[in-house]
Amino acid sequence: MAQSKVLMIYTGGTIGMIEDPETGVLTAFDFKHLNNQIPELSRIKVDLTAISLGMPIDSSDMNPTIWQDLAELVANSYDQYDGFVILHGSDTMAYTASALSFMLQGLQKPVILTGSQLPIGTIRTDGKENLITSIEIAANKDKNDESIVKEVAIYFEYALYRGNRTTKVSANAFEAFLSPNYPELAVAGVEINYKTNALFQSSQKELTLNCEMDDRVALLKIFPGFSTKVYKSLFDNNNVKAIVLETFGSGNAPNNSEFHTIIEEYIESGGIVVNITQCYTGSVEQGKYANSTVFNKLGVISGKDMTTETAITKIMHLLGNFTDRDEIINRFKNNIAGEI
Ligand code: ASP
User: Fold this and answer.
1) Assigned architecture for domain 4-209
2) Which of 66, 134, 184, 232 lies at a C-alpha separation of 20 to 30 Å from 176?
């Protein structure tokens, strides 16, 4: 079998930093000298090409335009490579992974996002293992010469997760990500152990690029005592096309008639309201309690067990690519890339 070809795309984040041994200052890594920095890379049996996507950024500066650039880069080089690794800051990695899972539908090859908590040039870095194993996963094929992973995934600290199921859970532990409502796709030990039953298989055989994103989306996290006076202005369909409500437990919010009227009027004017839970695990079940039954009557859409990152990027994607409200709602309710 010929060596797999992997394209590695560097966007920034801690992983791409090296520490000046004299000053201790962190500076962005020069990818032209990748093999000098990580000599182990020359021992991986992969034909690796590394490129940078513009100036390296802290992933707090990530945005839909860069998601588009990334998705286009993958789509335009899709036929030349067997897999893709995206080096990304961990802070917004779960948003980028979710967005790419909607932009790149019908993937038959892996797109693996990884990063690190410590820069690659520091002695205790987690970056080397994350990078090397991600490249292996991006290159791995089965006995029929097909990619094992055919979706957007995040590899971090010995585990591979579905990108649109993942959330950042720690600012300092090496185990920075978890997938609270879906099993790991693979675990890396002495060998990489793929959980084949958990891997996504798109019903679409050809890759389609759906790059448009509409950023007229808001997120409202409900808390005891939240004031409708403070948040009323958000519910304006001229500026905000969809609102993601992060509610309590299985989808509950205060039984506040003023809030219900605001939602009702917003939906009547064409706005879309979706309901996801603030809980780390579990799902929205509108109607389980009286405090959520009203949402069914008002036309609030249950986001079931979607993560916040997924609900936001999915609605951005749907508003960007479709105009018919019913179609947007219908697509929101159904799985696109294994996110529900
Ligand atoms: N602030 C950094 C970023 O997200 C943190 C990291 O890379 O882990 O770009």
Assistant:
1) 3-Layer(aba) Sandwich (3.40)
2) 66
